[in-house]
């Protein structure tokens, strides 16, 4: 079940009333993502790296930091990567998005947070993509069999 709402109270109500699993929430701005991760009664936070992000000189703004990754690990929430959305981007946006995903994978590995691949047609190609983006084999196996 995909929840795509910017209102926090509406999201909480939908999570409580959700009958089907997994419950997936589409990421918004940083403040919304923090509140949702702290609530934590869902399965996947999808596309944290998307949206209007301003990169700094030495670091990408990937939408995830060490604190959010630790909160996600503590509440057993996976960070989701949507391959269908990634495939629909043009070359420059895809390159920037892949760099942000790579940074998020590294943060998840350090904090112990899980990954999840969404809309993955072929499990072997999804596994290979995650390995090429610096995921460990354990992370990649858990992500494709989510």
Describe the structure.
- The protein is an alpha/beta fold and 146 residues long.
- The chain has a single domain (2-144), classed as Alpha-Beta Barrel (TIM Barrel).
- The chain is 49% helix and 12% strand.
- The protein is built from 7 helices and 5 strands; from the N terminus they run βαβαβαβααβαα.
- Helix 3 crosses helix 5 (91-111) and helix 6 packs antiparallel against helix 7 (137-144).
Present the secondary structure layout.
Elements: E1 2-3, H1 8-16, E2 24-26, H2 30-39, E3 44-46, H3 66-74, E4 78-82, H4 83-87, H5 91-111, E5 114-118, H6 123-132, H7 137-144
Parallel strand pairs: 1-2, 2-3, 3-4, 4-5
CATH topology: TIM Barrel
Q: What is the CATH homologous superfamily assignment? A: Metal-dependent hydrolases
End-to-end Cα distance, whole Å, is: 14 Å
How does the major sheet shape up? 5 strands, parallel
The tally of helices reads 7
Q: Characteristics of this structure?
A:
TIM Barrel; 49% helix; 146 residues; alpha/beta; 5-stranded parallel beta sheet; 5 strands; 7 helices
In short:
By secondary structure, this protein is of the alpha/beta class. The protein has helices spanning 8-16, 30-39, 66-74, 83-87, 91-111, 123-132, 137-144, and strands spanning 2-3, 24-26, 44-46, 78-82, 114-118.
């Amino acid at each position: 079940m995909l929840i795509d709402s910017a209102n926090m109270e509406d999201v909480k109500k939908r999570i409580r009333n959700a009958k089907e699993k997994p419950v997936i929430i589409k990421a918004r701005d940083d403040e919304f993502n923090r509140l949702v991760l702290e609530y934590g009664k869902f399965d996947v936070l999808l596309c944290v790296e998307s949206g209007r992000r301003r990169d700094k000189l030495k670091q990408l703004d990937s939408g995830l930091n060490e604190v959010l990754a630790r909160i996600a690990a503590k509440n057993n929430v996976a960070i989701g990567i949507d391959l269908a959305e990634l495939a629909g981007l043009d070359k420059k946006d895809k390159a920037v998005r892949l760099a942000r995903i790579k940074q998020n994978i590294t943060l998840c590995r350090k904090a112990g947070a899980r990954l999840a691949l969404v809309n993955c047609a072929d499990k072997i190609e999804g596994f290979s993509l995650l390995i090429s983006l610096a995921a460990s084999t354990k992370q990649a196996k858990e992500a494709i069999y989510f």
